[in-house]
Amino acid sequence: MPEMPEVEGLAGFLRERAVGRTVAAVEIGAISALKTFSPAPTDLVGREVSAVARHGKWLDVVTSGDGEALHLVFHLAKAGWLRWYDTVPRTVLRPGRSPIALRVRLDDGAGFDLTEAGTRKRLAVHVVPRAEAVEAIATLGVEPADLTPERLRELLTARNQQVKGLLRDQSVIAGIGNAYSDEILHAARISPFALTRSFDDGTTTRLHEAIHEVLASAVEQASGKPAAELKDSKRRSMRVHGRAGQACPVCGDTVREVSFADSSLQYCPTCQTDGKVLADRRMSKLLR
Prior knowledge:
alpha+beta, N-terminal domain of MutM-like DNA repair proteins, Helicase, Ruva Protein, domain 3, 4-stranded antiparallel β-sheet, 8 helices, 10 strands, about 20% strand, hydrolase, DNA damage, DNA-(apurinic or apyrimidinic site) endonuclease activity
């Protein structure tokens, strides 16, 4: 799933190429991706792209016309992506079995598709007068760049929960998902199942520093890259996420995995759990 650094990279990519252009056409490939119907996607036609913003993991293409803004807001979910064309194929997109959910054509012939692989369709597209009309955006937590040590301490103590879950909760901190929460906890040397109210000042400081350092590095790495390269760049930068069975780049121990029904996490026992291996069963009693 694209997380904050990749979505910020996509936002920057679109700013360079789409801002100032006029929407020439919008074609629908998957009706299921549309979460709003009025305004319609075709209401974007003839409007100028005036800005591209990011809200957590959401992308927001802002268009202007008739004195009012209209936002094309989308969440790429687990298997979605944005495919850019310098010249969009001439073939008109038709609803069907194509992985293309939405196609936007611009007045210079360029444009982009929103695609989604797999059978579990979760890509979400909204056309709204303001981004906050989407409830998932209105309820987002603090952006990582705005997260102070004091605010993090408040979030950690508000409810006693596993820190991995807190980092992934979009209503608490916006933009961090499964991959970067693994990377942050590895950098901070914290078990993914450590309970948040058990954190002392030193642990909280390590976590705060890791959040900023890991994400700042990832944003810098994503900046300026073409949309087609962002996913591979993300994979190459991971130290533990997606690297179960490989050597930890810090200590050399074997990176381990805990699997769940529809996801998994990776960690280093030596760096994060005092050498103890976490049970790979969802209902097991896990290390705190």
